[in-house]
Description:
Layout (H helix, E strand, L loop, with lengths): L12 H14 L3 H12 L12 E2 L4 E2 L3 H8 L3 H13 L9 H9 L18 E4 L9 H6 L11 E3 H14 L1 H12 L2 H36 L2 H10 L1
Antiparallel strand pairs: 1-2, 3-4
Helix pairs in contact: 1-4, 2-5, 2-7, 2-8, 5-7
Amino acid sequence: MSAACPGSDYLPDEFFSKLREIGARQNFEPEHALAIMLMESGVNSSCIHPSAPASGIFGKRFSTREEAVAFSKESAVAQLDAYERFMARYRSLPKAQAANLYQINFLPASAIPGPHYRGVGDDAVLAARGGQGYGGKEASFYDSNTILDSDGDGAITIADLRRTIEKGQARQAVKWAELRNRLGQPAPARVIRAAFPIMLAFPIMLAAAVTVAAGIGYVMYKTPPGFLRHAFAKV
């Protein structure tokens, strides 16, 4: 699931500070989570999966499409509360790379030691075309997420998730750079950065005004008084 949104101006600074706080509490890199949100929704809270009951910034799955639509109406900041509740269940799982976090977002059972565990290495197969497992749902997980099969071999692996993230970041390079910058830069610094062009332009504008004023003064100084009186008398 993905949706392209121009820039990130629609996201308040609170979103980024809150994501940083959640990452610290739930043991994950906020930048990795942001990369997944870029892939799942374009970090667009109103995004709805075209074929599955999932929506929101991280593609939260629901039992019904009505629930997904209702969630899509919440703000990105509000949806982070749901993301923290989700991640709290997997706080102890390895998240060394963004692909591991994507695995948890995509099929969390595949990362938990147990009957559905698939491993966390690049070669771990999470879902496959015609595959069985997860209560017979593995094939449907693959069929509704074929975009994640980056090499088109009929299986979605951790390596596929990593390549999908990298391709998404390259495809939306400008937006990704802006999102990363906002995540790592507190609001006051952003305000100063936004004001910097004005601060830079002010001395230039002041110098230009002084130059113009000096030029007018020079012309008036060199012009005979009688000529000026004559000129103003005609106005």
